[in-house]
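Example S7 (structure tokens).
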């Protein structure tokens, strides 16, 4: 099977957009990702998937911490910055949640300690035990078929 067919098929699954952040050598770092899910309620665990070529991979491995920032509909620029789609320098500000850098105004911020990592194919899966969570109301930024999207309310 060709890579393009696989990518096209996976693109048919609408996802939220996250920025995964970490603190490495005293500096915040981040990357855009949509490979995130909850794993367990007791204990509270989540999983992220990071590509083998991503700069954040070694930073998360070394720091042992990460945060998942679920972006709001008005945060497409932040997604594009951390995905490397915006090349010129933009100032990025961070807050902290349980001593881990997070993106201000994200719909949800989930700070985690890495408890396990698995290398599968060309990605590393990090299972994180949740340290703390911050949530706010708003609409999510979505990604579908290679494009950013937003929710539409449909009468029932």
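Recovered sequence:
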């Amino acid at each position: 099977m060709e890579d393009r067919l696989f990518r096209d098929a996976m693109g048919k699954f609408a996802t939220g957009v996250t920025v995964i952040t970490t603190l490495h050598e005293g500096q915040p770092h981040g990357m855009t990702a949509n490979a995130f899910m909850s794993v367990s309620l007791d204990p509270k665990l989540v999983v992220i998937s990071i590509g083998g070529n991503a700069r954040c991979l070694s930073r998360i491995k070394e720091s042992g911490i990460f945060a998942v920032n679920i972006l709001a509909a008005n945060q497409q620029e932040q997604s594009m910055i951390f995905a490397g789609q915006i090349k010129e320098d933009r100032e990025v500000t961070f807050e902290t949640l349980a001593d881990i850098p997070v993106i201000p105004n994200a719909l949800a911020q989930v700070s985690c300690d890495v408890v396990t990592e698995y290398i599968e194919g060309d990605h590393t899966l990090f299972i994180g035990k949740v340290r703390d969570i911050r949530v706010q109301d708003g609409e999510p930024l979505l990604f579908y078929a290679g494009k950013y999207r937003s929710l539409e309310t449909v009468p029932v």
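Notes on this example. The chain has a mean pLDDT of 94.
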